[in-house]
Each structure stands twice: as C-alpha cells, then as structure tokens.
Design goal:
With about 120 residues, the chain is mainly alpha-helical. The chain is built from five helices and two strands. A two-stranded antiparallel ribbon has the order 1-2.
C-alpha cells in the first residue's frame, strides 16, 4: 500500500474516533446503538414526550389540524421539539464525511486506477 494511502487511512481512523459520537453501541451482540438527549428533569422529559405526541396528532389529522378539546394545554412547543432534534443531529458525523471528501475528492477513483496500472 502506498504511503499516501496509509496516511489517509490513519487520518480516517483518527477522525472516526473523534467524530462518530452521536450513536453509542449498546453491546456488540445485536449491533444496537443509543442516542442521548439531555433534559433538566422528568418534567422536561414529559414535556418533550407530550409535545411530540401533540405534533403527531396534528400531523395525522389533516382536516382539522387541531388537537382534541379533551387535551388541556393545546399549544405545541415547537422550539422544544426542534431543540431535541438539534441534540440528535449528527453534526460530528457530517464533519467526518467532509474530511473524507477532502481526502478522497470526486474523481479520485481514476487516480487509483492509473496508479495500479503503472
């Protein structure tokens, strides 16, 4: 293997350790992972769950686009839902993809073919 390719592989290994952080393995047997959200307390967790459920109710009921009258507080805290989505957004993984795209720019497969023919 060429020195440049070895350096690229070492760079990818280093980047994967620092950038693949959104998912954490539960165990090695079933290949399951966890994603973590941070909340202040049980009340905030309950608020997240209730707002997600409200959002789903509105999404399912296209005609009325309202929550049933039986639900006391009918407002949806969209900011809270978006905050959770931001916590789960894998920005570090996108950084890794960016670094890999720099190491292997589009069209580099032609370079590899030319090197192997020489």
């Amino acid at each position: 293997m060429e020195t440049n390719e070895i350096n690229k592989l070492e760079t990818i290994k280093r980047l994967t350790v620092s950038c693949l952080s959104t998912l954490r393995p539960v165990d090695n047997k079933n290949r399951m992972h966890t994603a973590e959200i941070k909340v202040y307390d049980y009340y905030e967790l309950a608020s997240v769950i209730r707002n997600l459920m409200r959002l789903c109710i509105v999404a399912l009921d296209h005609d009325s686009a309202e929550l049933p009258i039986t639900i006391e507080n009918r407002s949806i805290d969209v900011g809270l839902i978006l905050g959770i989505a931001l916590q789960l957004f894998p920005i570090d993984e996108f950084e890794l993809l960016n670094e890999i795209s720099i190491l292997f720019p589009a069209g580099c497969e032609n370079e590899d073919e030319n090197i192997s023919k020489q």
